[in-house]
Amino acid sequence: MRFIIDVLLTGLAIFLAALVLPASAVSVAGFGWAIVAGLIIAFVNATLGTVLRIFTFPLNFLTLGLISFIISVLMVQLTSYFMGSKFEVANFWWAAVFAIIVALIQMVLNGIFGSRKND
């Protein structure tokens, strides 16, 4: 049950972030496609992103996590490439702004709907 709630909250965060940013920067075809984009971002981050983070660990350590953020932005761009016109991000900088806004919205949503210690 928790997984389904997390997927829906991630989809909502992606959908809201796409609404906040200009349509020329980030566009999502709808809430359902935002959920699919969230699943693909999570899958790509869990597979390819993990491998990249392992190989770039020394550099990531030296830059205090900046490389990890850049890898996350690249995973957003890769998802945009996979999904075509259903989820589009204009360029690297808009993907970075999008990633920051999604993280902030997810933080707020997890504060409201997040799991309790008893769950």
Description of the molecule:
- This protein is mainly α.
- It has one domain (2-113).
- It is built from 5 helices and 2 strands.
- A two-stranded antiparallel ribbon has the order 1-2.
- The longest helix has 25 residues, at 31-55.
- The termini are close together.
- The model has no long low-confidence stretch (mean pLDDT 93).
Outline the secondary-structure elements.
Elements: H1 2-20, E1 26-28, H2 31-55, H3 57-62, H4 66-83, E2 87-89, H5 92-113
Helix pairs in contact: 1-2, 1-5, 2-4, 4-5
Mean pLDDT value: 93
**What percent of the residues sit in helical stretches (DSSP H or I)?**
over 70%
Topology, number of strands: 2
Tally of helical segments:
5
Largest sheet geometry: 2 strands, antiparallel
Q: Catalogue the unreliable spans.
A: none
Shape verdict = globular
Q: End-to-end span in angstroms?
A: 10 Å
Structural domain count: 1
In the sheet with the most strands, the strands line up as 1-2
Q: Helix- and strand-based class?
A: mainly alpha
Percentage of residues in DSSP E strands: 5-15%
Radius of gyration of CA atoms, rounded to a whole number: 14 Å
SSE order: HEHHHEH
